[in-house]
Design brief:
Elements lengths: L1 H11 L14 H29 L2 E6 L1 E3 L6 E11 L2 E4 L5 E6 L6 E2 L4 E5 L2 H43 L5 H40 L2 E3 L4 E6 L6 E2 L9 E4 L4 E8 L13 E6 L7 E8 L9 E8 L11 E7 L12 E5 L4 E3 L2 E8 L2 E6 L2 E5 L2 E4 L8 E4 L12 E2 L2
Parallel strand pairs: 1-24
Antiparallel strand pairs: 1-23, 2-17, 3-12, 3-16, 4-11, 5-7, 5-10, 6-9, 7-8, 9-11, 12-15, 13-14, 13-16, 14-15, 17-22, 18-19, 19-20, 21-22
Helix pairs in contact: 3-4
Length: 408
């Protein structure tokens, strides 16, 4: 019995060779893919950074500069803008609407010249009515004076008759009363006429306010309104035109508080002025005024510099750079500035002079032509923008396109 059961159990353990083999686990594929991804990250991201940090050469950086003949005497350089000491927003004294504009932008005007006229038809009507009232008042004065003269004649004629007893004294008394009354009437009429005349004078003065004049001489730099637009001394458009006295233009710069001792107002410190609009030209100047306030946020003091020599055209708000000098400039010192490259940046490659321009970690080899020596540099005859960074003492194996890093 037990042997039969054992035989059945053994038979049930028979391998079914027709059945499909069991599926193998795919987890090893996932592991392989993860390892491959980690390897790629290491090779393409981590390795280049480590290799760059270990092998990228460190270099010193210089800069191409614009150097003027006065460079040796420069004590301090500051930047700022051209400003006007004398300017005005010419405005109207009374509210109204622009009827005429007599100037254009760029017009040269003198103090007291007409700038514009407001619409004044209604006001002229009021002035005409006032003149009529004044004329009527003066007519009343004339009438009162005529009546007074007539009474005076009657009194002079009646007085002998009363004295001789021909007429009663009461007649003379009545005439004298009329005379006194007319005298008062003449005084009242004269007062009315004076008041009417004062009203006319006042209106004529006010009418003058409808013609807008400039309080200063200068150049019209901006028209603030057009014909037909309304203006008001207290509201709306703040003016009609903006006038600037171009002869009062100076350069205002901010000088660091810690360097203020290098600037003098009396005697005035000599200066060299460079306008961005004429970057290759130098202009002589001197300190006009040192400000009396300190900008606490920037720790600077405003300094105004006047032009001794100036370009034909200089405008307000032009950007400028001022160099404060240890000695005044002469004519030869105002020669145009020259591009200067550090001498250590110029090397020979293939028998030609080259420099290596540094551009955010990249090296760009550039052929150049250099001239005479200027201090520690050489005049650069090839036009390359001032401020361009160059590599000083480049290694012999430095190549175009190579990665480098700046030595701190």
């Amino acid at each position: 019995m037990e042997s039969d059961q054992l035989s059945r159990d053994l038979a049930s353990l028979k391998i079914d060779r027709a059945a499909p083999p069991p599926a193998r686990s795919k987890s090893w594929i996932v592991v392989v893919l993860v390892l491959a991804a980690l390897g790629a990250v290491g090779w393409f991201v981590i390795y280049p950074r480590v290799h760059s940090a270990l092998t990228t050469p460190e270099i010193q950086i210089g800069e191409i500069q614009m150097v003027s003949p006065a460079q040796a005497s420069v004590q301090l350089t500051a930047t700022g803008y051209v400003v006007a000491l004398s300017y005005a927003n010419v405005a109207s004294k009374v509210p109204g609407r622009i009827a005429e504009l007599y100037v254009d932008e760029g017009s040269e005007i003198k103090q007291g010249d007409k700038v514009a006229r407001l619409e004044d038809v209604d006001f002229k009507s009021s002035l005409a009515a006032a003149k009529s009232r004044a004329a009527a008042a003066y007519s009343k004065v004339a009438i009162a004076r005529s009546q007074l003269t007539e009474i005076k004649v009657q009194i002079d004629r009646e007085k002998p008759l009363v004295e001789s007893g021909v007429d009663a004294k009461a007649v003379l008394v009545d005439l004298q009363a009329k005379y006194d009354s007319l005298t008062a009437a003449v005084s009242a009429a004269q007062a009315d006429a004076a008041a009417a005349n004062a009203e006319v004078a006042s209106l004529q003065t006010q009418l003058g306010s409808y013609t807008i004049i400039t309080p200063i001489s200068g150049t019209v730099v901006k028209k603030l309104v057009q014909v037909g637009e309304g203006v008001s001394p207290g509201f709306g458009t703040p003016g009609v035109v903006e006038v600037v006295d171009m002869s009062s233009l100076v350069v205002e710069v901010d000088v660091p508080e810690t360097r203020l001792s290098q600037v003098s107002e009396n005697p005035p410190s000599p200066c060299e002025i460079v306008l961005d609009a004429y970057s290759t030209e130098r202009f002589r100047g001197e300190v006009k005024e040192i400000g009396h306030t300190v900008n606490k946020s920037k720790a600077t003091v405003p300094v105004k510099v006047r032009f001794i020599s100036r370009p034909k055209l200089v405008l307000p708000d032009m950007a400028a750079r001022v160099s404060f000098l240890s000695k005044a400039l002469d004519e030869k010192d105002t020669a145009p500035a020259k591009l200067v490259v550090p001498a250590a940046a110029v090397v020979q490659r293939g028998g030609a002079d080259v420099i290596f321009v540094y551009d955010e970690g990249d090296v760009r080899q550039t052929s150049v032509k250099v001239g005479e020596a200027v201090g520690d540099g050489k005049v650069l005859e090839t036009q390359i923008p001032a401020g361009t960074k160059v590599i000083l003492s480049p290694p012999p194996d430095l190549k175009d396109g190579q990665k480098v890093k700046e030595k701190k």
